[in-house]
Amino acid sequence: MEHWHKFVSRYLWIAPHIFLVAVPVAMYVRRLNKTFPLFFFYTLYEICQFLLLFGIYLLAPTHAILYQYVFVVALAGSAALRFGVMQEVFNHVFHDYPRLESFAADAMRWLTGFLLVAAILSAIYSSGSAPDHLLAGVALLDRSVAIIQAGMLLFLFVTARMFGLTSRSFAFGIALGFGLLAATDLAVWALRLSGSNLPLVKFLNLLLTGGFHITVLVWMGYLLAVEKPSNAASYAVPELEQWSGELERSQ
Amino acid sequence: MNTELVFVLIAVGLLVSFGYLGVRRAKGSPDLGQAVAAIQSLDIEAFRNLVDPDEEAFLRTRLPLEEFRTLRRERVHAALAYVNELSRASLQFARLGDAAKRSSDPAVAASGREIANDAIFLRMLALNARVRLTLAAFFPGLDTSSVHPLIDRYSQAAGLLQDLTGRAQEMREPV
């Protein structure tokens, strides 16, 4: 059992980062690094972070404190970058639709405020069971970020669905990946509240890394799925263009 | 129910939602014919009449209060059915515009962007009208005339579409 767990946990730690290498490479080949520069940087950051932590683990296995500090600093950077990437995704999805963009911006302001309050309330009502102050702080930061990000991403998907925007573009792939990651974070944290015995903690750690693995696969899937230019609507466009023009003039 | 269970349920709900969004495939290509049929099938004059403040004032003076309230609620529900249909039609147009926006032809893509923008605005007006009418169904004192911008915009779209589809039909018929 122990052997099995060790194998799975190593796999889930290493494999997603190997797969992740393909994401910036594919983005570069498809020139998506210019459309999503922050996400491109984020993937490189995650790979470097992994190499650094894995290097410490291999070369200095007795320096647990060093590992912990590097982990915490890297996690804070990762959380900040994720917010930047989300802003990038929102801009990309809505920038072609000025009316929707202003509506979404207003709604987002309210939603962010509401989610901040939810994150603060969750911090007040649940202390968790972290072994020291540093880890407790990290857990709190991670959970608050997950609450805010999950809410914002759900809003993005609901708005897109409400107004008929396609969810097949890479922007939605990025959002879906982060959404799954944030939801897994929240699920793991919520399950941790219910107990902290060793087998449960081990299982939850696997769930976290497994969530990241699925996220990377989602990004790869969206990158590999070719977004074909639409021909279906073309035949109707001259008529629709006139419709649009008339409406424009009548404003 | 304890706090932990609530958090677990919320997290699992989110996970399921994102999982569903991941595996769900968008419905087939948007159909212009369906959208046009939907938008043309609405009787705009009947819709306008349902939210006409003058008509409402007239009914108010002629009917006993209880009867007026019942009738007004029925009229608001009928208007809501119109708004829902219009909302669905504008969604079809938004999807069509969004699909055209991704065309490899820059002119088609630019048109798609404009069409989607207009359709999105129409849908925003429809959603706004839906909220106002739903409130009006519960609070009879609320004014329903704010639905008029939606009707005006809808009238323009429907009239134009009628012309366009008529012309398209003529072009398809053999001479």
Descriptive labels:
heterodimer; A: mainly alpha; globular; B: 175 residues; mainly alpha
Give a short summary of the structure.
The complex is a heterodimer of chains A (251) and B (175). With 251 residues, chain A is an all-alpha fold. Chain A contains nine helices and no strands.
What would you say this structure looks like, in words?
The complex is a heterodimer of chains A (251) and B (175). With 251 residues, chain A is an all-alpha fold. Helices cover 83% and strands 0% of the residues of chain A. Chain A contains 9 helices and no strands. In chain A, helix 7 packs antiparallel against helix 8 (198-224). The mean pLDDT of chain A is 82. The mean pLDDT of chain B is 74. Chain B contains 7 helices and no strands. Chain B starts with a helix and ends with a helix. Chain B has a single domain (31-172), classed as Four Helix Bundle (Hemerythrin (Met), subunit A).
Rg over C-alpha atoms of chain A, rounded to the nearest angstrom: 21 Å
Question: Helix/strand-derived class of chain B?
Answer: mainly alpha
What is the count of β-strands of chain B? 0
Helix content of chain B: over 70%
**What is the total number of structural domains of chain B?**
1
- Radius of gyration of chain B, in Å, reads 21 Å
What's the SSE pattern of chain B?
HHHHHHH
* Nearest-integer average pLDDT of chain B: 74
Poorly predicted runs of 5 or more residues of chain B: none
Greatest interface (CB-CB under 8 A), with counts per chain: A-B, 54 and 56 residues
Name the average pLDDT of chain A: 82
Sketch the major β-sheet of chain A.
Answer: none
Ranges of chain A with pLDDT <50 over ≥5 residues?
Answer: none
CATH architectural arrangement of chain B: Up-down Bundle
CATH topology of chain B: Four Helix Bundle (Hemerythrin (Met), subunit A)
The residue fraction in helices of chain A comes out at over 70%
